[in-house]
Specification:
By secondary structure, this protein is of the alpha/beta class. It has a single domain (about 5-140), classed as Protein-Tyrosine Phosphatase, Chain A (Alpha-Beta Complex). It has 6 helices and 5 strands. It has helices spanning about 20-25, 45-55, 75-85, 100-110, 115-125, 130-140, and strands spanning about 5, 10-15, 30-35, 60-65, 90-95. It has a 5-stranded mixed sheet with strand order 1-2-5-3-4, sandwiched between helices. Strand 1 and strand 2 form a beta hairpin. The model has no long low-confidence stretch (mean pLDDT about 95).
Length: about 140
């Protein structure tokens, strides 16, 4: 399991498996968020299986599927609400972690300086610098 720390409250990861959930719980995460639609690719672990494993380990689980390359403002607002209400720290996953990083970044526009958002995502391995103008617009 790969967890790329964005902040103390959230890390993002590529697809996880049921076998990863024990390590996620042991690492101190309180919540798992799945931003990947079920059946997006062959061999992907079903969300219901991950949810059951998460709940068996006492973790909160949220499912907010977002289509790759089709993130909407509604998706960002839903993620923001989910993020604010979820117990932390959170591990959010999708195919590569990028979708989750984008959702977090845009949900923080206006709450954090754009440079701080970009630095946090870059430190986690996700270069969102091309989104700086959009983050700035959303922050106003």
């Amino acid at each position: 399991m790969i967890a790329n720390k964005v902040t103390d409250e959230i890390s993002v990861a590529p697809q996880i498996t049921v076998e990863d959930v024990a390590a996620i719980a042991a690492a101190g995460f309180k919540c798992i968020v799945c931003n990947r639609p079920d059946g997006e690719s062959r061999g992907q672990t079903a969300v219901d299986e991950v949810k059951a494993a998460a709940e068996a380990h006492g973790l909160h689980f949220s499912y907010q599927p977002v289509l790759s390359g089709r993130m909407s403002m509604e998706d960002v607002q839903a993620f923001k609400s989910l993020y604010e209400a979820a117990p932390k720290p959170i591990l959010a996953y999708c195919r590569s972690g990028t979708r989750c990083a984008f959702l977090w970044a845009f949900s923080q526009a206006g709450n954090m300086a754009t440079g701080d958002i970009l630095a946090a995502t870059a430190a986690a391995g996700y270069d969102l610098s091309g989104m700086a103008p959009a983050l700035e617009r959303m922050g106003k």
